Amino acid sequence: MNPDASTIAAGAPIEVDLSPIAEGQDIKVFWRGKPIYISHRTKKQIEEARAVPVASLPDPQSDEARVKAGHDQWLVVIGICTHLGCIPIAHEGNYDGFFCPCHGSQYDSSGRIRQGPAPANLAVPPYQFVSDTKIQIG
Length: 138
Hints:
- The chain is built from two helices and ten strands; from the N terminus they run H-E-E-E-H-E-E-E-E-E-E-E.
- By secondary structure, it is mainly β.
């Protein structure tokens, strides 16, 4: 008895298997009709994100606050630019994160706004780890 497509589109939680996602790779899934980027971050990406002084960010938030404890390599964000709702491109821009080509907003590997007109970081959807290799979004 699985929910039908309209129930899922309305916001039913979805489960995503992380095991096929290689280090340094991103995938995009959809939840509530929104694109969700799931990034398997490299050690270098994590270190670079954590080296940024939080006070220097337009929307100050630590990298640790944007990931689940013990799962620092996984970033889960809603892939909608906070400027005008465009879809940013993963692994683009100056910060090895996300780049919105429409108006030039650039986000780092933690999904934090670093440059451009976007006023806020990419949103983190409600999610939890149900196992070491599976998350539930919603």
